[in-house]
Fold this protein.
Amino acid sequence: MFTDTHAHLDYPEFAWEIPALLERAAEAGIHRIISIGTSLESSARAVDLASRHDNIYAAVGWHPSHVLEAPDDIRADLRVLARHPKVVAIGETGLDYYRLPSTQNQPSPVSDAEYKRRQSNLFEQQIEVARELGLNCVIHQRAASEAALEQWRPHADRIRGVFHCFIESAEVMTQIIAVNSLVSFTGIVTFKNAEGVKATLAATPLDKLMLETDCPYLAPVPFRGKRSEPAHVQQVATEAARIKGITVEALSQATERTVREFFPAIK
Ligand SMILES: [Zn+2]
């Protein structure tokens, strides 16, 4: 039994298909899914899905890559969403410096510096709401691990974060664990050319990691390039257990314990 700790079930790719998708997940041993919001609208859809399905939970937040569409202050709306009993975390939130305005083909309304400032502000608002409500954070960072850790550190004694879709070095993983946080791994661990990620997973303590699909993205081998779905945690888990040199059952026990600790609102 595993949890898909990071899925985007509210995306149009899954419309009308949730019951079949839950069935396939259950057959694969994936008994619980956390649907992650990427804007207030997306978060509200995740909460709605969670309210209608026992084994779906929600995280509510605003993704840094959508910062330019965000209102100046999301805190009031986020608090309302986050108080739903099936909301188990704030996120995804964080920093993404991979696609800065200067790297885009279209002219941008903001400079790179302003874009980063707005992302940082949006991240801070979500950390604030998480602290208030005693929820942990689902953190997205890309090409910004240092900045994200720096912003996170002052809060690390109060809340925990999971740095999701982790592809960084073992050194960065160690820094994350040092601030009482976790990492989670996607189908990327099954990719042949992902030697670095496999090495990081091998080095990650068994009680500091969770598994996810990030579906509809990042389908594991043998589905690579296709639409991913929560059932694919099975392939992620099989490869992760192989890399760790343990049985799938032992991996299940460890990661499920971590899931219940990190998301205490889960029944
Ligand atoms: Zn995501």
Strands lie at 2-7, 30-36, 56-60, 87-96, 136-142, 161-163, 182-185, 209-211. The chain has a mean pLDDT of 96. The first strand starts at residue 2 and ends at 7. The chain has one domain: 2-262.
